[in-house]
Amino acid sequence: MSAARRADACVIACAEIYRGNGEILANPTVGTIPYIGARLARATFEPDLVITDGEAMLVTNDQAVGANNGHANVVEGWLPFRLTFDVVWAGRRHVVMGASQVGRNGDTNISSIGPFEKPSAQLLGPRGAPGNTVNHLTSYWVPNHSLRVFVEKVDFVSGVGPASAARLGGKPAAYNDIRFVISDLCMIDFKGESACARLVAVHPGVTVDEVRERTGFPLQGGQSITTTREPTPAEMSLIEQLDPSGLRYREVSA
Amino acid sequence: MADKRTTEAEIVAELKDGMTIGFGGWGARRKPMSVVRAILRSPIKDLTVVSWGGPDVGLLCAAGKVRKLVYAFVSLDSIPLEPHFRLARQSGSVEAMELDEGMFYWGLYAAGLRLPFMPNRAGLGSDVMRVNPGLKTVRSPYLDGEELVAVPALNLDVAFVHMNRADVRGNGQFLGPDPYFDELFLMAAKRRFMTCERIVRTEDFSREGSFHTLKINRMLVDGVVAAPNGAHFTSCAPDYPRDEAFLGHYAASAGSPQAWSDFRRIYLDVEEADYQRLVARR
C-alpha cells in the first residue's frame, strides 16, 4: 500500500463532515475527493448514508471513481432531479458544493464575478445554492485554496452563509447549517466570533501561516487549530479501492 | 383521432419575435436540438429563453436570438461553463433572470397550475433577490407568519421537449434515467411541441418501457415531430450518449469570431438532414 499523501487527508476531511449525519442524502456535487469521501464515510462510520450515482439512482454499492457503470450499480431507489427538491426542502440532505468565492461570513458565489449586468466572468449561475443553504446541511470543496477564492466579500451571494441567514431569522436561520469548507490546505468552519470564518484544522504538511497567506481575510482560530487526521490503514485500503487509478492526486497533487 | 405530426419548419413558422420560449431537458441532456437548429436558421429574434441551460442557450445567444435568459444555471455538463453563454453575459448583450433551481421549478409549476406564484424559502438572503428586484415576498396568513419568496409563474408562449418515443397523438415516453421537468414546460406553455427519436404505435409503448415511462400525455402536446438524433449533440439515453467530441468542437467555436463563423457556416447554416449527414460522417 502506498503512503498517505495530502489528497488522502482531504478524503478523510471530506468523509468526516458526515459524521453523525445518519440516514440522509450525502450528496457531493463536485470533485473527485468529495466523491471518495462520502463513500468512505458510508463504508466506515456512517453506514446509513444515502448516495446517488451522480444522476437519478440511489446506489448501495460503491464503484470506483471515474468508472461509473450504470449496469453494475445496485439501485436501491430512484431520485430524479424533480424529486431531489422533496429531499432538499424536507432538509434530509448534506450537500457538498463548489465555490468560486468564499466570503469571510460564509456567503459563497458560483454565479458571476463583477457587476451582475455585465459580469467580468460569468460562471454557472446560482444553481440550487440559495435553496440548499436555507434548507439543509451544506459544506464546500475548494481544491485550489487561494486569495482569489477566499475573499472578504463575495461578488454574488449564491450560497447563504450563517451571518446572512441569522439576519433573516426564523426558519431560514434555523435550517441554515454551513458545516465546513474543505480546501486542499485546510478545514474552515463559521463558528468563530460573529459567525465568521475560523480555521479548524490544517492538512498534514500544511502550516497555518501558509493558509493565512493564501486567504484574503483574517482567519480566526488560534490554539484550537488541529491537524487533519491521516487515514488509518483500513481507510487507506478503502480509498485505494474507491480510486485505484489515483485520480485524487490529480485534484490535489501535493 | 387527431394526428399531430408536424415538422420543425412548421413549428418555427409559428414563432414571433419577442416570444417567451422554454426548452426541456437538462444541461446537455435530452435537449430538443433540432428545434434549436431550426430557430437558428429562421429570422426570429428577441426571444426570452427559459431553460435548464445547456447548448440550447449557448447557440441561441451566439446567433443573437436572445433578448433575455431565465435560468438557474447554464452548463455543458462535461464542460462545466458554457462558453457562448459566458460571452453573451460578459458582453452585456442579454438580460438575465437568475433564479435558484427550486425557484425555477416552482415558477414553471405555478404557470402550469395557473397560479400567480408559489411560495418557497429559496432565494431569501441570497443575491437572487437583489438582481431580480421584481421578486416579492409573501407572509404566511397562518399563525407562523413566515415570510417566503413568492416565485412568480414562468408563463411560456411556446415549449419544446425531446422524448425517446412518441405516438402521433402526442403521448410521449422517456426511456432514460430522468424525465427532467419536461411536462412542467409543456404545462406552462400556450403552444406545446414534442420532438422524438421515433414515432411508434400507441400499442408499442409497452414494448419500449414500463407504463411509468409514459410521462407526457397527449393533453399536453399540440404537435409531434419525428426527429431521429434530434437531441444531438446532447445525450438521449439510452438511444445515444452525449457526443463529447462534437461538444468540444462546439465549445471551441467560442474561441474567436472566426471559429464561430466557421462552425455556424458548416453545421448551422444547413438543413437538419445535412447536419445529420455531417455529424454521422465525423
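The first strand of chain A starts at residue 25 and ends at 28.
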